[in-house]
Specification:
This protein is an alpha+beta fold. It is built from five helices and 18 strands. The protein has three domains: 2-37; 39-158, OB fold (Dihydrolipoamide Acetyltransferase, E2P); 161-264, Immunoglobulin-like (Sandwich). The strands form five sheets. Strands 1-2-3-6-5 form a five-stranded mixed beta barrel. The protein has a four-stranded mixed β-sheet with strand order 9-10-15-16, with no helix packed on it. The longest helix is centred in the N-terminal third of the chain and has 24 residues, at 2-25. The protein starts with a helix and ends with a strand.
């Protein structure tokens, strides 16, 4: 009986050993299985870069990078953003990680882009070649917001601070997404010429001041609506809305495209 128990114990120990050996040998396989289960992703080779936030992979599909918005062609730093992305990903195997909606209305894949452990989307923001652009998916929002703050701290690319004397004068007094109204205030004792200065959201919506002087200690309201401009109220026509309820960022840039102020909500 004792001998039978010993034999049984040996069999159990052998089984445990074999199971452990199986797990050790197949750890990478099991890790991949778990990762595939938890994350929707695939790998691909990047054939070319269209612009700072869009690539084409070896399947022929276009991929729009999630969570960011790079300058459009002809805008400040658009060429730099494209070249930076080309240097990172062209002819390289990348990981496309999907989250939520997989395709946009143009039929492009929507994905976070990785090379190994490196988050390409975050690198673009950190180096001043894209701003944060959050739609429905907020998965990487925290990391992207930190990358933007780092960019502002580094004072590079689209985060480069304006040296215009009025950049230190203009304050944002109100940003109301319900009424689609923003108010700027000139706190300086002199008039500020902000002609050709630009207001922008996280996406593609923008407004340029036309031949406008903001007098000392005065306010100006910009309302998303149609109307007739006055000295104290300007109308951002052509848009049904700009500021989203789910959150957005206001960027104010001088005529050279440098950042005068920004505010996130």
């Amino acid at each position: 009986m004792d001998r039978a128990k010993k034999e049984k114990r040996k069999d159990i120990m052998l089984l445990v050993f074999l199971v452990l050996a199986f797990f050790v040998i197949n750890y990478r396989f099991l890790d991949n299985v778990i990762e595939n289960f938890l994350f929707d992703y695939e790998t691909a080779v990047v054939e070319r870069v269209i612009d700072g936030d869009t690539i084409v992979i070896d399947s022929g599909e276009s991929v729009r990078l999630l969570g960011i918005n790079a300058p459009e062609r002809g805008e400040h730093y658009s060429d730099e953003a494209k070249k930076f992305l080309e240097g990172m990903v062209v002819n390289k195997t990348v990981r496309l990680e999907y989250s939520g909606t997989k395709y946009d209305k143009y039929g492009r894949l929507l994905a976070y882009l990785y090379i190994g452990k490196e988050d390409v989307n975050i690198e673009l923001v950190r180096n001043g070649l894209a701003n944060v652009y959050i739609l429905d998916d907020k998965k990487n929002e925290g990391a992207l917001r930190k990358a933007w703050e780092k960019c502002v701290e580094k004072d590079v690319g689209i985060c480069e601070k304006s040296v215009d004397k009025c950049a230190n004068c203009i304050e944002l007094k109100k940003l109301d997404y319900t009424d689609q109204e923003i108010i700027f205030y000139n706190r300086c004792p002199f008039s500020c010429d902000i002609s050709d200065w630009e207001i922008r959201d996280e996406g593609r919506k923008n407004y340029f001041f036309q031949d406008f002087q903001l007098e000392p200690k005065m306010k100006v309201s910009i309302i998303v609506s149609n109307g007739t401009d006055t000295d104290s109220t300007l109308y951002w026509s052509g848009e049904s809305y700009v500021w989203t309820r789910a959150g957005d960022t206001l960027f104010l840039r001088d005529k050279k495209g440098k950042l005068a102020l920004w505010e996130n909500y």
